[in-house]
Amino acid sequence: MEFPFDVDLLLGERITTVDQHLQPSGRRGAGFSTTHSFGCSYERNCLSDYECVQVLIESAWFQAQNLPTPITSASRMQTNRHVLYILKDSEAKTAGKGAIIGFLKVGYKNSSLLLFFQDRHGAHNEVEPLCVLDFYIHESLQRHGYGKELFHYMLQRERVQPYQLAVDRPSEKLLCFLRKHYSLRDTIPQVSPFISNLFVLLFFLIPT
Ligand code: ACO
What we know:
This protein is an alpha+beta fold. The chain has six helices and eleven strands.
């Protein structure tokens, strides 16, 4: 997919982190809030990093991936403590503007609530787990180790062990991924009526 700006320049690092302020890592202090020019003409205007990130994460690339919560909107990123990890292909030059390999979004489901999670013995524990919310590697690049690269980077940066994460409605592929790379096999389904007034299923995965 082509973007109206240089993705390679916007995403300064191979894996760029975008926090709730829509600030891409590696570009701090580089005129983040000011309009600047790096060939980013969009409707004849140059966009700030902030605006470019907004356009990027609301683009079809981030939306139409059949994920459990497919709307990675800028406003949701901002109101929740969501962090987006974006893996780019530094080699590929799609029309000279770089390409995205995949992304991983983590965050807290509801920062104002501590949730009671059931452990495998049925006991309730008060926790606020970091959740894997969206995880996607481009169709043509799956099973090449990119997902592991992205996930491993996130674990290090968030300083969490895989078994400490909750996963929001994991797909079959993600369950296979967690089984293969992190020996996480058993799920403890969680039903919480407290989040967004809906029943939301979260899973804790237990290492074998
Ligand atoms: N079928 C079964 N297992 C798969 C598949 C598949 N089509 N694709 C990846 N996996 C699992 C397997 O365990 C695989 O190992 P194997 O090839 O030896 O069987 C392993 O992942 C490969 O590891 P990576 O190459 O590091 O993973 P990848 O780059 O493919 O990324 C991901 C994994 C993100 C799950 C990717 O396959 C993907 O984007 N799938 C489609 C979207 C999706 O299901 N995302 C998760 C939604 S749930 C959520 O986000 C909370």
